[in-house]
Design a protein that fits this description.
This protein has 175 residues and is α+β, with helices and mostly antiparallel strands. The chain has a domain of 112 residues. The protein is built from three helices and eight strands. The strands form three sheets. The protein has a three-stranded antiparallel beta sheet with strand order 2-1-6, with no helix packed on it. It has a three-stranded antiparallel beta sheet with strand order 4-3-5, with no helix packed on it. A hairpin with a 4-residue loop joins strand 1 and strand 2. The chain starts with 9 loop residues before the first strand and ends in a 20-residue tail after the last strand.
Length: 175
Amino acid sequence: MLRLPCSLLSLDIQDVMGTHILNIGGTLTKSRLDSNGKMISSEVLEANKDGAHDDHDEGHFDPSQYEKAKNSIKNKEGCNVKGYIVVNKVPGNFHISSHAYGSIIQRLASDGLFTFDVSHKINHLSFGEDKDIKYIKKSFGENHGVLNPLDNTERTDKMKLVYEYYLKVLSIFQI
């Protein structure tokens, strides 16, 4: 995310079973980016036993989180998210959002300090384990099918508040 600070960013899932988890489980690294896209610092987030990360405000207002977000916005920071998530094997979606920080965003917006800019670049997105991806490439070749269709996708339309990408992920079984 080129202009959405890490202090306001979460990775969430929602599935057809009714599960909606903010800051989903797995291991994620959020790297703060300066206004030129250079890394300032990184934070590794490990999921708790419920599959969520503990760094969100869950609807209550946290003054220290507000100040952190305010400073990040003032400095025009962005955020790079890297890692893996664990999801149920049912239809659903994952989304990068600010749902977990609603009270902070509401306050920032009412103070005239924040407008959404969801400009972003997807460096790499894949599904499954590395060993399975290597098997597919070895068995079917690099140019057979599309394994990572969103790699290097970049969007910088500052007027757009939501971007949606639809993918159909198929499982391959070794016989």
